[in-house]
Amino acid sequence: MATLNTWRLALDIKQWVVTAAEAVKLHLHDDLKVNTKSGRNDLVTNIDKTTEQYLVQKIRAQYPEAKIVGEEGFGDQVEDLTGLVFFVDPIDGTMNFVKARENFAIMIGAYLDGKGIVGVILDVMKDELFWGGPEFGVYKNNLPLPKPKNITLSEGLLGMSGPLLVHDVKHVAAAVTASSGARIFGSAGIEFTKVIQGFENGYVSKLMPWDFAAGKVMAETLGLKVTDIDGEPLSMLSSKIVLIGTERTHAQILALQ
Fold it and tell me: Which UniProt keywords apply (predicted)?
């Protein structure tokens, strides 16, 4: 592959995501075709599918040698991370999209030989575009984001998966008790935007690679820690309980395991 211009790549991804969001908004109040996947709370709609098809088409046209991991199955069967790999989540927070028409995101993460180079998350209904990478920093729309303060667990709010908290998986109830309180948005993308802005000092949830790929790039660029709940590096090709946090918060939650 020719030398990759990551700034050009970021501009491309931002344009695709913004255009996709405009199409989603046009159909926001249409009668959705809603189906379930793994269970009654794991939803997919016709908008999820058409959005991913659009994004995959744009990637293939501009970066034909790249591999694509897509939530709805329109990408490739990816078995390794060599070369350029895109992780596409067309509607992150589909339950929110179906039930509330807010707190959902469109996300793309781009990785080169396993290293995150560009992450983009668009909070569709707020028109807040978060994007960035290690070569040029992280931005909210056109404004650079500072590194979040390295605060402890007790000093901030903790983003949390509802099912993990209800069943107290991996001692997350103790982490919530030690924090200033739990926040549950039902969208990994929205939660990542809260942490990278410093509104939350951590987030714990069981996620697929397309759920965390974009946010991981931006979080690590800003000095946040992103691992599995046991402190191990994340696999980009399998599901894990993901822990993102400031260094202090991250260490405190690991100490509970």
Answer: Hydrolase, Magnesium, Metal-binding
